[in-house]
């Protein structure tokens, strides 16, 4: 699914076009950057409600070409400039994380599958 | 394959037009034709033809015998116009269709079909397989669209090849008895705005000298986790030093305190002493060292309270 198609499915906006109009096959949603760093695969769509410079950095480190901000949180210009410089596309959804994910899943965008269970302290 | 290769090597020099020309020799008719075609039985009228053409937005329909599905002719928009002019819409399709069919073989190169279209002035060719069965229909538009698709694919493969070539030559341009590149960064405590710059720069440097995307990614993620640790946990920040060698990359983070009370505890998933500020930033879930360890080939931690911490990560460069 490409940036424009994703925006259409969630009735959202493309705030920054990705440097390359990539086709993403999977998505991963989290507000915890550590989880994205740990679990997300390269070349996927990242959904998050967390708005700060580290969100863009996390995508940059993980080779993630598209970030979708949920809950109608429009990021400040600084973040958009950072994303543009890194070649990362940014989208905005006015739906909640749950509903945004649901709409995309329904439209055929898969998740990354079941993860292994790890005992936490 | 050797033919493809010569095409790739010539692409940098030649005009795209000549590449298009070469593609017409490489691509088969079956790759560009419209395979799903509707046929109509020979028993129908020109009026039916008009309705089908309008509803399906097609300009040529093969006509087959009602019983055996044998190809008898091709009716086109031009034939329909003739029928309209003669006010004979109720005539049988067999009266107006073309029967001297110019066909293309599904396995022949596109260039042959193109020549036949030019020579005959026909708008479309019926495509048949070796046994003479109807396989599809081919217009100049189909050929154009097919060539553009093939061209795009070819360019994509050239880019891929160039990228592969680059990444197989990690450090190859530099020659010495012992080559290494050292990158050193100061990381400030609590700086969540600039935080991540060291990792970002290390990643870019690795890409620049030809690391594979996989290697650049795992070094970047591990270094980023460690860089975030310096920002979250240290009194006064620290340093990140990456030492890049042809066969191995070593990334060291060191700081002057406060030190980790129990290193083995800190390396367990979910253990965290992070501030609420760190949690607001999406970190502090007790996954930092765990993630870094997963990305690195080796991870060592030395720490003493009030003295400081040193984290050393080793990444082996896979030999292609």
Report on this model:
The complex is a heterodimer of chains A (121) and B (320). Chain A starts with a helix and ends in a 15-residue tail after the last helix. Chain A has a 5-stranded mixed sheet with strand order 1-5-4-3-2, with helices on both faces. Chain A is an alpha/beta fold. Helices cover 36% and strands 16% of the residues of chain A. In chain A, helix 2 runs parallel beside helix 3 (53-61). Chain B has 320 residues and is of the alpha+beta class. Chain B has 2 domains: 15-145, CBS-domain (Roll), CATH 3.10.580; 181-316, 2-Layer Sandwich (Heat Shock Protein 90). Chain B has 13 helices and 11 strands. In chain B, strands 7-8-9-11-10 form a 5-stranded antiparallel sheet, covered by helices on one side. In chain B, helix 2 packs across helix 7 (110-120) and helix 10 (213-233) packs antiparallel against helix 13 (288-295). The longest helix of chain B has 28 residues, at 140-167. The relative contact order of chain B is 0.10. Chains A and B meet through helix 2 and helix 3 of A and helix 9, helix 10 and helix 13 of B.
List the helices and strands and how they pair.
The complex is a heterodimer of chains A (121) and B (320).
Chain A: H1 3-10, E1 13-16, E2 27-29, H2 33-39, E3 45-48, H3 53-61, E4 66-69, H4 77-86, E5 89-92, H5 97-106
Parallel strand pairs in A: 2-3, 3-4, 4-5
Antiparallel strand pairs in A: 1-5
Helix pairs in contact in A: 2-3
Chain B: H1 2-11, H2 16-26, H3 29-32, E1 40-41, H4 46-56, E2 60-64, E3 71-76, H5 77-85, H6 93-96, E4 103-105, H7 110-120, E5 124-128, E6 134-139, H8 140-167, E7 181-187, H9 197-208, H10 213-233, E8 238-244, E9 248-255, H11 263-266, H12 276-280, H13 288-295, E10 298-304, E11 308-316
Parallel strand pairs in B: 1-2, 4-5
Antiparallel strand pairs in B: 2-3, 5-6, 7-8, 8-9, 9-11, 10-11
